[in-house]
# Entry
Amino acid sequence: MAIPRILVVDDDPEMREMMTQFLRRNGTIALPAATEAEVRKHLGGGRVDLILLDVMLGDENGLEICGRLRHEQDVPIIMVSALSADHQRMAGYEVGADDYVAKPFNPDLLLARVKAVLSRARRSSSLVHRRNTKTFHFAGWTYDAKRDEALSPAGVQVALSRRETALLRALLANPHIPLTREEIAAALDVTGDTKQTADALGRAIDVLVGRLRSKIERNPKDPQILRTERGVGYVFAVDVMAQDA
# Structure
C-alpha cells in the first residue's frame, strides 16, 4: 500500500509548516512548496498523489497554476483559499480543481476532504488496478502480487507472513523514500490500535523489519535492500521495476 504523498503549496511559511506537520502526523508524506517552480520540481522528482494549492501565492496565481497542471496531468488538486465566495469557488472548479477548502479551516475537516479526494481518485482507477496486477523486480528478487509469491535471486520461493507481505508491498510502492515508523504503521493500518504507545508501535515495526530482512537480505546484519535511515526510520534502498502481470 502506497503512503499518500501530498504536496502542500503555500507561500505563508507558518501555514505551510502547520499543514505539513499535521498531514505527516496523520499518516501521509507531506512535502512543502511555495512556488510553481518548486511544485514542478517535486512532480518531476517522484510520485505525488495530491496537491493542496493556495490560490494566492505572492506574485503567482494558484488558479493559473492549477489550470496549467490540469492540462498536463491528472494529479488531484484541492484549492485552499481565504477567498470563499461562490464565484471564487466556481473559478477553482472551472480550472480543474477537485475540491475547494476555505480558510480558516478545521484541520480535521481538511484531512477528511483530503481522504475523500484520494479515495475518489483510487476508485476511479480501481478496475485498471485490478486488471494490471503488478510483478515487481528488485535486487534480483521477483515479487508477484497476483500470486503473492516472492522469488529469491536463486529462483527459490520464500514464504512471507501476512504482515511481512504488507510491509514489502508498502516498501515496493515507496522506493528510495525514507519512511518513519509512524508512516510505515499507517501504511500497514496498525495505528488504530489505541492500546499501543508510540514506543511500543515503533518496536513492533522494528521487529517486523528485522523479520523481513532475515528473508530478503543476504546479510541481515548489514542490510543493503531495507536500510536504516538514521534519525528517520527505514528506506527501501534499491531500484524497483514494476510491470503489469
